[in-house]
Amino acid sequence: MTKGVKNKRRPARFRAEDNGQDLPLDYMMRVLNDPDQPTERRDRLAVAAAPYFHARLTAITTPKATFEMSTEEIEQLLYRELEYARRQGNLKLVRQLEESLRGDRPPRPRLAVDNRRPNGMNPGAPNGAAVRKSSS
């Protein structure tokens, strides 16, 4: 048993190439690119091969315009933008989004969090080393 081998079975593509065989898609592409083949045959092969090279447009989500969205969808979109603005540190946009989300409702209660460092601690220094004060 060979160490480090996760899967001893080789994928079908490599097994076929080892035996000198073509995979169906390889065969279709070879015939498709052969100018000596009839156009009708090449057209049929192009239609058959297209799903392997191009995604269906229905699989790609298209964003809705805001006038097509329900109130809940707009609110969800604003909350997603708010979270993104918070992660990016865009405080001006955070304030604007919070105000627009607040609307007629009372503001959400804020958590009391004290982010200040203990007196004399330098947040940029390793392990919160004390700041040396220079006498000027």
Description:
The protein is mainly α and 136 residues long. It has five helices and no strands. Helix 2 (24-32) crosses helix 3 and helix 4 (71-88) runs antiparallel to helix 5. The mean pLDDT is 75.
What does the secondary structure layout of this molecule look like, with pairings?
Layout (H helix, E strand, L loop, with lengths): L11 H7 L5 H9 L6 H15 L17 H18 L2 H12 L34
Helix pairs in contact: 2-3, 4-5
**Average pLDDT number:** 75
Broad shape: elongated
Rg calc: 31 Å
The succession of helices and strands, N to C, reads HHHHH
For the report, how would you describe the main beta sheet?
none
What percentage of amino acids are in beta strands?
under 5%
Q: Considering DSSP H and I runs of 4 or more, what fraction of the residues is helical?
A: 40-55%
Give the N-terminus to C-terminus distance in angstroms: 73 Å
| DSSP summary: helix tally | 5
Coarse structural class: mainly alpha
Number of strands: 0
- Unreliable segments (pLDDT under 50, ≥5 consecutive)? none
